[in-house]
Amino acid sequence: LDSGKVDYGRAVPCSCSRGELRRKKSEFLERYSNLGALSRLTFDNLSPKGRTANAVSQEHFARICQAAKAFADNPEGWLVFSGSGGSGKTHLACAVANRRLGSGEPVFYIGAADLLDHLRSAFSPASDITYDELFEQVKNAPLLVLDDFTTGSATAWAKEKLEQLL
């Protein structure tokens, strides 16, 4: 709506370029997210009762799914999923990330083991990114999805780095 007022204090893109700017922002956020093929994991294709036939487990998963949706809409604090392998933790975490991405919000996904490998390799002289740059990128992510986080068999260095992040 053109009010007739001239605002010399801020740059405003013309209407013809807004669509292109939105597309570029979306592409940038998708690359930054590191989700790759996991971008297909959404709430829409998540079984709301999980993968089990057990009624109690189904009800429990449904409550967790609702909590994940609420967090995706208003991410405050932490949301931690724990459970056995194949229980849907990664799908839930990626569904949260993809909902935020769909809202135009930055998200960074990485598996804990991959993160530690990248941090170690950043010490190499041949690395394209310094350790500090990578660590700060992960540490300052508005929403960090750290998958397969476990410290059970981690080295002292790995535990220290993960604790520094969190």
From TrEMBL:
Q: Which Pfam families match?
A: IstB_IS21
**Location of the IstB-like ATP-binding domain:** 70-149
Give any single GO term for biological process: DNA replication
InterPro entries documented for this protein: IstB_ATP-bd, P-loop_NTPase
A GO molecular function assigned to this protein is: ATP binding
Protein name, per record = IstB-like ATP-binding domain-containing protein
Q: Which organism does this sequence originate in?
A: marine sediment metagenome
